[in-house]
Write a structure and sequence with these properties.
Distance between the termini: 25 Å
Number of helices: 2
Structural class: mainly beta
Strand content: 35-45%
Helix content: under 10%
Largest sheet: 5 strands, mixed
């Protein structure tokens, strides 16, 4: 499960020369000029998984080999693998579980004293994650990548600065698409507000690009664009976007360009989502003038957002939640969730722990997604 949230926003812009970044599939973000916005409001209701989802999870349920604990953090685009944090009484690390049988492959062990894994993302052959290197110093972290094709492992960034100091700000939330990793890299402390650079790293070309600097959020891939948030000197929020191929600024419609406040972002081929505070979520259907606004309750703070098909997933401490964007209805689960357009995976202990420190073997379940998969009751 995620370790900490990141919101380090705003400041003046600064760009380096553009490097080529392969485009992500998706529709143009530009609706027809002059088309009035369509805004739908939803008050989200929550319950346990509906009967159909429970049957689907039960029909696709498996234990993780070796009796290990496992928190799912990401799912491969084809739905064949779940990636996450495995652990036992003697070891922990990043692993991949084959959803056709439950076999776990160890990707990278964690060093002794590490706190665990934060945000994860998977696309194509690449898996990226933020790694908390110390359980006593949550400012000690790294951003890492691993290739399923070659098993190559890379350290892309750390919290350690060249002068021996440490970066000032929250841990990054890295995302990957089409061989490009994006994250916000915290900088040295210069003001009372954390500042960061919006970083892209092309894993094929081994080339880094800085898109923005200041009080900026972590970026996301949304349709064919890279999008991030900024806070200006007057504390107003804005969303910024570049074309993922040319890295030239991309126009956003007024409602997206001026989003109110922004706490978390999530993007997919079809949607851009952002939370404002802990209870409000706005979702824009890319290429249209359609927006949906969702209001949750205080027990379900909106953090660590993921998009999977027509669903938003998030971790609220306890529980984790799955929201159907089409109906405004949601269900809770007691474990961790992650997904792709292919499926949503759930990881939870196979039984209640006997003590607070006991590591219980995990059970992985998943529900395949299709156009007909919905949450219609709660």
């Amino acid at each position: 499960m995620p370790l900490a949230f990141v919101v380090a926003l705003g400041g003046a812009a600064c760009s380096s020369p553009a490097s080529h970044v392969p485009a992500a599939p998706g529709a143009s973000t530009a609706p027809a000029a002059g088309t009035p916005d369509v805004v739908r409001a939803h008050t989200v209701c929550f319950a346990g998984p509906p009967a159909g989802w429970s049957r689907s999870f039960a029909d696709h349920s498996l234990g993780v080999s070796g009796g290990l604990g496992f928190d799912v953090g990401a799912v491969s685009e084809d739905g064949g693998m779940a990636f996450g944090h495995y652990r036992s009484a003697t070891e922990q690390g990043v692993g991949a579980v084959a959803l056709a049988g439950g076999a776990l492959s160890r990707i990278a062990p964690l060093p002794a004293g590490a706190a665990g894994i934060g945000s994860m993302s998977a696309a194509g052959p690449w898996v990226v994650w933020e790694q908390a290197e110390s359980s006593t110093d949550l400012g000690d972290w790294s951003v890492r990548a691993w290739s399923r094709d070659t098993t190559e492992a890379l350290v892309l960034a750390t919290s350690h600065l060249p002068d021996g100091g440490s970066a000032f700000g929250e841990m990054p939330l890295p995302v990957v698409r089409r061989g490009v990793v994006a994250w916000a890299q915290p900088q040295a402390r210069h003001t009372s507000h954390p500042e960061a650079t919006v970083q892209l790293y092309d894993l094929g070309r081994r080339r880094a690009t800085v898109l923005d600097t200041g009080r900026v959020s972590g970026p996301v891939f949304a349709g064919p664009y890279v999008v991030w948030a900024r806070v200006a000197a007057d504390e107003s929020f804005s969303l910024r976007a570049v074309d993922a191929v040319t890295l030239r600024p991309a126009p956003l419609p007024d409602r997206a360009r001026s989003p109110g406040s922004v706490r978390y972002l999530a993007g997919s081929a079809r949607y851009l989502a952002w939370s404002s505070g802990q209870q409000r979520l706005t979702v824009w259907r890319l290429g249209s003038n359609e927006y949906d606004e969702y209001t949750t309750d205080l027990r379900h703070p909106l953090q660590f957002l993921q998009l999977a098909g027509d669903f938003v997933l998030w971790y609220a401490g306890y529980p984790s939640s799955v929201l159907d964007l089409r109906t405004g209805r949601a269900f809770d689960v007691r474990g961790s969730v992650a997904g792709s357009d292919a499926l949503i995976a759930l990881s939870e202990p196979a039984r209640p722990p006997a003590t607070k420190t006991e590591i219980v073997p995990a059970r992985l379940s998943y529900a395949p997604l299709s156009a007909a998969t919905r949450i219609d009751s709660c």
